[in-house]
Design a protein that fits this description.
By secondary structure, the protein is α/β, with parallel strands linked by helices. The protein contains 10 helices and 18 strands. The longest helix has 13 residues.
Amino acid sequence: MLAVHLEAGVVTLRNVPVPHPPPGSALLRLLCAGICNTDLELQRGYYGFAGTPGHEFVAEVVDCETPALRGRRVAGEINLACRQCEWCRQGLGRHCPHRTVLGIVNQPGAFQEFFTLPEPNLHLVPDEIPTERAVFTEPLAAACEILDQVDIPRGDTVAVLGDGKLGLLIAMVLNAQGYQVHQFGRHQTKLRIAAGAGVYIQPVDAPLPVAKYRWVVDATGSADGLRAAAAMAQPRGTVILKSTVHGTVAIDSAPLIVNEITLVGSRCGRFEAALPLLSSPLIRLEEMVTAQFPLAEAPRAFGAAATRGALKVLLLP
């Protein structure tokens, strides 16, 4: 079967055997996968990654121990937890110290024709949801995680800094949940997607506001994002960090301390929160697809995904 291989920044294709699912896992046939910013960071050296990347996917269950799953479309949570440690017993397998992570840490990813994932990680995709929308389930869950972590009063104003893939999803999710969202970004074409859902947009063509917002989300994907978001936060405000950046981020901690800013790191989220949003007209996913490539053209797809202004690039079998 065909598999994408990423090593030392180079994307290649390999022919590898179809994997045999271990006990409790399912064999999955890829239907659609999305290249996200984390995949691009892996290409730049994040985690010293070498192997098959990919963690945003929709797949068909080919074989498993649960008959009701066979032949069904699924999306899957990316953290493979031990399900026995203290964190797992608290329902926080995403922080299991023994976990592997699909396409990121010690677990071959979804950018291949067939792959495996534990059955408890799988979530059925509703029949009425197109595959090209369902492939956004994992990043949508990451956007929803903000509201699981931070108790933001409904109707409050939230600033979202960044208009990339995750920034747009965060803005649209918060807007759909009843918050007043102000999104700041550099690309009018991207911002118009959020504006079409009712988000107030502000192109970054002037200095950003200072100490204006109680809640600020950094989704810039840049080393400067935290500094900018912290400056936008009011004293005793909260900054939610959603960016994954390869390398060390330098910041002057004095303003954070003096202004008593709360920093909240935020990563993966619950699929249960994301799946209902796939049917919401306020989540404008189709407009976020920049291009689609067959799996056999994965090197070109990665190049397209890294192009300035690109949003979601999809891989199809």
